[in-house]
Design a protein that fits this description.
The chain has four helices and eight strands, in the order ααααββββββββ. The protein is α+β, with helices and mostly antiparallel strands. It starts with 10 loop residues before the first helix and ends in a 7-residue tail after the last strand.
Length: about 180
């Protein structure tokens, strides 16, 4: 038989020959042990873990503590929060209570919560009847795209609530 008519080696034989030579040593040194392969295959993608992870328990606790037994109402609180935050380290938040401020009823406290931040409480301000208006402008840091909640408690016990979803370009926390 001439070399042109020689049968081609089977793919099995070719693979075996590769595994017996230097290539087998190189391939073995790059491969993960069987236990590691099983562990990586069993891992599922997880959310952010650690000090930068959202804290839903703290968010829920702060909301419940501020609201108490009151039923939050949407009217009476005006918010100016951007939908897209190009600088997540300084997202401007403006809140204004539009209800009439009287000697009998005024805004006692205003609170800003960032739902998915590691520490949800971003800002808390107290007012007196002598303030004349309950209006505040602050800049907060957001860790990711999320909803920002603003709550205001009136002297009468009424709670005003507003929220705005904010999309951020990059993480502001942990920078």
């Amino acid at each position: 038989m001439t070399p042109a008519h020689a049968p081609h080696p089977s793919p099995v034989l070719t693979r075996r020959r590769l595994m017996t030579g230097v290539a087998a040593v190189g391939a073995a040194s790059l491969a993960l042990p069987g236990v590691a392969l099983a562990q990586t295959a069993a891992k599922k993608p997880t959310a952010l873990v650690g000090p930068l992870a959202p804290n839903p328990a703290a968010f829920k606790s702060a909301m419940e503590q501020f609201i108490g037994a009151a039923a939050p109402q949407a009217q009476g609180l005006q918010l100016d929060i951007p939908v897209l935050a190009d600088n997540p380290s300084a997202v401007p938040i403006k809140a204004k209570v539009t209800l009439p401020i009287t000697e009998q009823d005024w805004c006692e406290e205003l609170m800003v919560l960032a739902e998915l931040n590691p520490i949800p409480l971003a800002c808390r301000m107290r007012f007196t009847a002598d303030t004349g208006a309950a209006e505040a402008a602050v800049r907060i840091r957001l860790s990711q795209s999320q909803t920002v909640h603003v709550l205001a408690r009136m002297k009468s016990g009424a709670v005003l609530a507003g929220k705005q979803a904010v999309t951020v370009a990059a993480s502001g926390c942990g920078m």
